[in-house]
# Entry
Amino acid sequence: MRQGGRGISKMTMTKLCDHIKDNGLRCGSPALRGRCFCYHHDREFRRLRILKTAGCKLVPGLKNPRDLRVATTNILRALRNGLLAPPDAVPMLYGLQIARSLLPGPRKRKRHDRPQCD
# Structure
């Protein structure tokens, strides 16, 4: 039987995860040794802490195409390393696409503007 008080199982004295779910109930999984959260929530909160500290480094000032490449690479690396969830990465990458379209640069030729070969 688990006791809801301090997040400790009464029978085994195992510390339980401190995370409170959206429905108001405690997670109930065993916490990692020496930690307050279970494996899943510890990993999730660690990822969020890293993102908060590195958030402004993830996307630098977008002043030129090189900055856009750096930002895209940073986002893709964070996604690959599990620091950024796909639903969070999609709007960021879309924003970079919009930023690229707003940068001044050489215009692409339209098909009908190509020189004709005789």
